[in-house]
Specification:
Layout lengths: L2 H4 L16 H22 L9 E7 L9 H15 L11 E8 L5 H17 L1 H7 L5 E7 L12 E7 L33 H25 E13 L8 H19 L5 H5 L10 H11 L2 E12 L13 E2 L2 E2 H28 L4 H18 L3 E11 L2
Parallel strand pairs: 1-2, 1-4, 2-3, 4-5
Antiparallel strand pairs: 5-9, 6-9, 7-8
Helix pairs in contact: 2-3, 6-9, 7-11, 10-11
C-alpha cells in the first residue's frame, strides 16, 4: 500500500467527511492544550527569540476541517495574553509568524485554503488583536505537502512544532507481514489483535521504531536549539500491543469485513492481504527512540483516556435516561458516531483496496458491531502527549 499516495481523511464537508466527523480529534487537542500552552510560554520567555524577526511554526498532519486552524488560533491567543499582561516585550507585536501546514499530498488543502480569508478577517476585526498588532498580525500561512517521515523544512528554520492525531500513522504497512512463500501472516485481521502471531507484533513494532526515529532525526535538523515540539497521538497504556485500548476498533472492523466474506461479498484473500499502516505505541517505546536519537530533552509525557465517540452525549451507566433518550438509544447514537469517525479516517485506504462499492454495507455492519460492543462496556482510546526541547 502506497500510504503517501492514498492516506487522507475524507474530503469536503459532506456527511461522511472528516470535517463533520472529527470530534474525537478536537477533544484530543483540547485535552493536550495545557501542555501545548506551557511549552509555548516557556519558549516565549526564553529570550531565544528576542533578536529574531520571525518565528517558524509547523503543524504536522494538519488535515482539513474545523480543527486545522486550532493551533494557529491557540498560539495567537497565548501571545495576545502575554503581550496584554506585559509578560512579553512590546517588540513581539511586530514579530512575523511563519506558519506551515503540513500533510500528505492527497490532503484536502483546497478546503483549508478556502477557510483562510474568513480566518484572516476574524483576526483583523478582533479589537484585541488590532490593538496589539495593528491592522495586520503579520501571520503568513502556507502549505507544505509531504511525509513528515523525512525532511520538510530548511535547516534551523522552526521554533515550534506541533502534531496531533497523526504520528500513529506509519510511513508504510510493515513489509514483513507475509511469509517467504507469500502467505499472509495475519489472516482474517487488519491490524494487531490478540490472535496475531508474534512475528506480526514484531513487524509493526519495528516499523514504528524506524519511523519515529526518522521523524526525530528530521525534526532535529529543522528546529533551532531550544525550540519546542509537542506531539499528541494514539497510544497504549502497557508494553502489550494487543490491549483493547490500542487495537479493538480495528478488531471490530476486521470482523465486519469477515462477515462480508461469509456472505460472499468480499474475497477472504483481500482481507488477508490488507493491513493498516497504524501503530499505537507505549511510553517506553517513545523513550527508547528519544534516547537513541539524543537530539531532544523530554520535558513531559502524559497519557489520557478518550471516549471512542469523543465524549459527547455518552451513556450514563448509573441511569437509564440521559438527555431525553433511554440507554439503548444513547448506545446506538454513540455507535453511529464512532463508526462515522472511523469511516472518515480510514475510508480512503479501505476503498483503495476493496473498492468503493462495499463502503456503505461495510460501515453499516461496523456500526452494529461497535454498538453491540458499547452496550457491554465502554472501551477508551489512550492518547499520549509528549513535550520535547531541542538540545543546543
Amino acid at each position: 500500500m502506497e500510504v503517501v499516495q492514498i492516506l487522507h481523511m475524507n474530503k469536503g464537508n459532506g456527511e461522511a467527511s472528516y470535517a463533520q466527523n472529527s470530534k474525537v480529534q478536537n477533544k484530543i487537542f483540547a485535552i493536550a492544550k495545557p501542555i501545548l500552552e506551557k511549552a509555548l510560554l516557556e519558549l516565549l520567555g526564553s529570550n531565544r527569540l528576542m533578536a529574531m524577526e520571525s518565528m517558524g511554526i509547523a503543524d504536522l498532519g494538519c488535515s482539513s476541517g474545523p480543527n486545522t486552524l486550532l493551533l494557529i488560533s491557540e498560539i495567537m491567543d497565548v501571545i495576545h495574553a502575554q503581550l496584554s499582561s506585559g509578560q512579553l516585550h512590546p517588540s513581539w507585536s511586530s514579530m512575523e509568524f511563519r506558519v506551515f501546514l503540513n500533510d500528505l499530498f492527497s490532503n484536502d488543502f483546497n478546503t483549508v485554503f478556502m477557510t483562510l480569508p474568513a480566518f484572516y478577517n476574524k483576526l483583523r476585526e478582533d479589537d484585541r488583536y488590532r490593538r496589539l498588532f495593528g491592522a495586520n498580525p503579520n501571520l503568513f500561512i502556507s502549505a507544505v505537502p509531504g511525509s513528515f517521515y523525512g525532511r520538510l523544512f530548511a535547516r534551523k528554520s522552526l521554533h515550534f512544532v506541533h502534531s496531533s492525531s497523526s504520528l500513529h500513522w506509519l510511513s508504510q504497512v510493515p513489509p514483513s507481514l507475509e511469509s517467504k512463500a507469500g502467505t499472509a501472516l495475519n489472516k482474517g485481521k487488519i491490524y494487531i489483535s490478540k490472535s496475531s502471531p508474534q512475528c506480526v507484533l514484531d513487524a509493526y513494532s519495528l516499523q514504528f521504531h524506524e519511523d519515529f526515529l526518522m521523524f526525530l532525526k528530521s525534526r532535529a535538523e529543522e528546529i533551532v536549539g531550544g525550540g519546542r515540539m509537542v506531539l499528541s497521538f494514539m497510544g497504549r497504556p502497557t508494553l502489550d500491543p494487543t490491549t483493547e485500548q490500542s487495537c479493538y476498533h480495528w478488531e471490530l472492523l476486521a470482523l465486519a469485513l469477515m462477515s462480508m466474506v461469509s456472505d460472499g461479498l468480499v474475497e477472504e484473500e483481500k482481507v488477508d492481504s490488507f493491513n493498516a499502516p497504524y501503530y499505537a505505541p507505549c511510553a517506553e517505546e517513545l523513550k527508547s527512540e528519544l534516547q537513541k536519537d539524543g537530539s531532544f530533552i523530554m520535558d513531559r509525557l502524559e497519557a489520557f483516556e478518550i471516549d471512542w465517540d469523543g465524549g459527547g452525549d455518552v451513556v450514563d451507566d448509573q441511569a437509564n435516561i440521559v438527555n431525553g433518550f433511554d440507554h439503548d438509544q444513547m448506545v446506538a447514537i454513540s455507535g453511529k458516531r464512532v463508526a462515522k469517525t472511523i469511516r472518515a479516517v480510514v475510508e480512503s485506504m479501505i476503498e483503495a483496496h476493496f473498492g468503493i462499492e462495499i463502503m456503505d454495507d461495510l460501515f453499516q455492519r461496523y456500526t452494529e458491531l461497535v454498538t453491540n460492543h458499547l452496550s457491554k462496556r465502554r472501551t477508551k482510546y489512550i492518547n499520549l502527549v509528549i513535550s520535547l526541547i531541542r538540545r543546543d
